[in-house]
């Protein structure tokens, strides 16, 4: 048998088979700039809010406090108290922010979470002590 004399595939043929190897085309239009979520952005610092914007920290306070009624009351309650205590001054300092009611509710529910945990521990101390 004679050896095949056909040449190996040329570069354009390889590019048509494997498009990843093809050179990248120049962008046709400038893309929108993505938001900056670096540590220096206003998102991390709790910076300026738009008029009527609800505080995400206040919303998180309420959600964590409410979840603590059902799961892990002590850590969730402590987290809700700390987050609510942090959210309230931020909301009060910013005249356009909303969510003060959510922050207060989350903080109070966090205190209730911790209170339920303490009450449960006191009523079940006999079982734990043996």
What does this 3D model show about the protein?
The protein is mostly helical. The chain has a domain at 50-129. It has helices at residues 11-17, 42-45, 56-68, 73-93, 100-123, 125-129.
Question: Uncertain regions: pLDDT < 50 for 5+ in a row?
Answer: 37-45
Order of helices and strands: HHHHHH
Helix content: 55-70%
Number of strands: 0
Specify Rg, calculated over alpha carbons. 29 Å
> Beta-sheet strand percentage?
under 5%
Integer average pLDDT: 76
Taken from the alpha-carbon principal axes, the silhouette is flat
Largest sheet: none
Q: State the helix count.
A: 6
Task: Supply the helix-strand structural class.
Answer: mainly alpha
User: Please, what is the oligomeric state?
Assistant: single chain
Distance, first to last CA: 90 Å
What attributes does this structure have?
mainly alpha, 57% helix, 0% strand
Please describe the topology of this protein.
Layout (H helix, E strand, L loop, with lengths): L10 H7 L24 H4 L10 H13 L4 H21 L6 H24 L1 H5 L1
